[in-house]
Write a structure and sequence with these properties.
Layout (H helix, E strand, L loop, with lengths): L1 E6 L3 E5 L5 H7 L2 E2 L14 E6 L9 H11 L6 E3 L9 E4 L4 E2 L4
Parallel strand pairs: 1-6
Antiparallel strand pairs: 1-2, 3-7, 4-5, 4-6
Bound molecules: FE2/S2 (inorganic) cluster.
């Protein structure tokens, strides 16, 4: 398990090695902004990596395609939470993440 801190909420998620950050948030009872329901096609879940970029897992092809289409480039600082896996501590920014009961 690796700790992922989500700003500005200040949420700290424990993310398993085979889990995406969005999946961990959902398991913990949080809503992560999405339009495509985690199919890596909308780009809505994009998050800014603030610390721990080297702890982020590889960028799969579908994420790379969506980042290129929606942002124009792939730089490693912006990742899709629905595809992002981690191997160590990461801090990222994603506005709109909130507890399910606030939906
Ligand atoms: S939720 Fe749509 S791209 Fe990640």
């Amino acid at each position: 398990m690796s700790a992922v801190t989500v700003l500005p909420l200040g949420l700290v998620l424990e993310v398993a090695g085979d889990q995406t950050v969005m999946a961990a948030a959902r398991t913990a009872g949080y809503v992560w902004p999405t339009v495509c329901d985690a199919s890596a096609s909308c780009g809505t879940c994009v998050s800014i990596i603030r610390e721990g970029e080297t702890n982020c897992g590889p960028i799969p092809d579908d994420e790379r395609e969506t980042l290129t289409r929606t942002l124009g480039s792939v730089d490693g600082d912006r990742r899709l939470a629905c595809r992002l896996t981690v191997t160590g501590p990461v801090t990222l920014t994603k506005r709109g993440v909130h507890p399910i009961e606030e939906s």
